[in-house]
Specification:
CATH architecture of the largest domain: Alpha-Beta Complex
Number of strands: 12
CATH superfamily of the largest domain: Spore Coat Polysaccharide Biosynthesis Protein SpsA, Chain A
CATH class of the largest domain: Alpha Beta
Radius of gyration: 20 Å
Helix content: 40-55%
Largest sheet: 10 strands, mixed
Shape: globular
Distance between the termini: 52 Å
Length: 254
């Protein structure tokens, strides 16, 4: 059995996938679960000897579970295409895999917006024994369910997101459609004026205040305002889907 399997969930990541795969080349195998990319993501991944599986399904917990099923490693390391492992974190990961003294690891993730460090870091379970992973839950904001001892690693994973406005707009247009569709399928309450204002104000407060965006100066303000915009686009698309459905019903269309 292989020791370490790296798993990447992708969708139109041709600009990132090459560097991501090269960055985690220390893994015994690299698995790409591609969610219906329309660019060269799959071809690039295959050219770097990754095992690529295409599954077009709007359920990211399910996609990560497929990654587990396909992996042959005793340990699983989940990484996104825009994330990078530092040499120090690489050493920590390999030490854990070699010693196997724990069941899963909590990793700090440092975020970068426009190349600038964000004041607030995330903590997430991304490294785990395959036998300890019960499964991922959640269609959109998925969470791993693991059993056993969870150890916190000291060195961070680096997350380079939102590097320029054009790519941000493209991503928002694509992912907002996915998120709106998921919320629509899950019978989200009808969008109203008050709900729009509550969602957008919560997005700004969460980014600018709760996650210390104000400490990042101009970049912090731009990113926080962008979170408001992104939320608006998502829920406007949700409103559109709900409105089309109600119009269809009023005209007897099913």
């Amino acid at each position: 059995m292989k020791k370490l399997s790296a798993i990447i969930i992708t969708r139109n990541e041709e600009d990132q996938i090459k560097e991501c795969i090269k960055n985690i080349s220390f893994a015994d195998e690299i698995i790409v679960i591609d969610n219906g990319s329309t660019d060269q993501t799959r071809e690039i991944a295959k050219s770097f000897k990754a095992s690529v599986y295409t599954i077009s399904l709007l359920d990211f917990g399910y996609l990560r579970n497929v990654g587990k099923e396909k992996a042959k490693g005793e340990w699983l390391f989940y990484i996104d295409a825009d994330e990078r492992v530092t040499p120090e974190l690489k050493k920590e990961i390999l030490d854990v895999v070699k010693k196997s003294s724990t069941d899963a690891c909590l990793i700090i993730r440092n975020n970068f917006f426009f190349g600038k460090p964000w004041p607030h870091s995330d903590k997430m379970t991304r490294l785990m024994k395959k036998s300890a992973l019960i499964g991922w839950q959640g269609a959109l904001h998925e969470t791993p369910m693991v059993s056993g001892i969870i150890q916190k690693l000291h060195n961070p994973l680096l997350h380079y997101t939102h590097n320029d406005i054009p790519s941000m707009l493209n991503k928002t247009n694509e992912w907002s459609e996915i998120e709106a569709q998921l919320r629509y399928k899950n019978n989200h309450p009808p969008m109203t004026v008050l709900r729009f204002f509550r969602i957008m104000s919560t997005a700004f407060w969460g980014s600018y205040v709760t996650n210390d965006g104000w400490k990042a100066g101009t970049v912090g303000l731009i990113e926080s305002m962008y979170q408001v915009f992104s939320s608006f686009v998502t829920y406007a698309k949700l409103w559109e889907k709900q409105n089309k459905h109600s119009i269809g019903l009023s005209h007897g269309v099913h």
